[in-house]
Amino acid sequence: MRLQGQFKWLPTPIFSLFLFVVWLLLNNSASIGHILLGTILALSIPLITFSFRDRQPTIIKPSLALKQLFIVLYDIVVANIEVALLILGANKKLRPAFIKVPIDLTHDLPITILASCVSLTPGTVSADVYPIKENLLEGEQIGQRYLLIHVLDLDDEEALITLIKQRYEMPLKEIFQC
Amino acid sequence: MISEWIVSAFLLFGGLFIFIGSLGLIKLPDFYMRLHGPTKATTLGMASILIAAMVFFANSEHGLSVKEILITVFLLITAPISGYMLIKSALHHKLNATEETKGLDKIEKD
Q1: Of the partner residues A80, A115, A119, the one whose CB lies closest to the CB of residue B17
Q2: Is A175 exposed, middle or buried (0-12, 13-18, 19+ CB in 10 A)?
Q3: pLDDT, tens digit, 9 for 90 and up, residues B2-16
């Protein structure tokens, strides 16, 4: 895990790239002037705002992150069709449930990404992260974390937990190396 | 001509999914289950309508427009976050889930 970018002048490489691409997309052009202005903005904004932001783990394996992005996009389409079919089916057939998934990630950013992936994919909405930080006594260590998930139609709890851990958490752990 | 067909197909597909997502809001029995419609079905529906818009403008005199990609990305980022805020406040207010819901004991007090 690495909390800081490799170069001092580029503290958050992915954020810079994102700013650059968003600038070109917003202007809807790829002329030299916009590329130049976008580069300047993408380099200067992170440098100015860097000290305000919480340190988050940086992406260490970009190729794996790209692959994971496509996996999640594919899953979103499949999950949407599944949920649409469930909604059209009879209410009585649905088996709603809350489940707790133990997670090994320790930082806010990877946990947020995992929770978002879970919300967008197979018939699940993430609800909370346990233990709740405000409930802990002062100085108490956070032990095992859990993600509380609401499932629309639960078939096999164990299988779903393994699916979430293998398909979404394992790649995230590798991408951020934490 | 062919682009009109593509645009219509995407518009129909998107409209269908948004309709199903909204149908879920009426039909499903409790708040937690109703959240599944807007966080998923509507996201895909919006994405296909935006793709339709992109194809339409690429074939008109306006030329290719890529802002739709940006809207899709922001939708994909914000949909789970708003879903999370909604379900968290629902848990805080202890809204009743249907009786068949399993694992209600797993909810901790906050």
Answers
A1: A80
A2: buried
A3: 888 888 999 998 898
Residue B33: closest CA among chain A residues belongs to which residue?
A152
Q: Cβ of A163 under 8 Å from any chain B Cβ?
A: no
pTM for the complete prediction? 0.79
Helices H, strands E: what count in chain B? Answer: 5, 0
Whether A11 and chain B come into contact, CB under 8 Å, resolves to no
Within a domain: residue A160? yes
Q: Are A152 and A96 in contact (CB under 8 A)?
A: yes
Together in a domain, A18 and A68: no
Tokens of A86: 């469930």
Nearest to A96 among B20, B44, B98 (CB): B98
The answer to the question of residue A7 being in a domain is: no
Host domain of residue A155? 62-176
| Helices and strands (H, E) in chain A, number of each type | 6, 3
CA distance B27 to chain A (A): 8
Question: CB-based contact (8 Å) between A27 and chain B?
Answer: no
Q: Which two tokens stand for residue A128?
A: 């909370």
Both tokens assigned to A53: 């932001």
Question: Which residue, chain included where needed, has tokens 């419609």?
Answer: B37
Domain boundaries, chain B: 2-98
Question: Which tokens sit at B18?
Answer: 């948004």
Q: Using pLDDT thresholds of 50, 70 and 90, give the confidence band for residue B64.
A: confident
Q: By the 8 A CB rule, do B36 and A123 touch?
A: yes
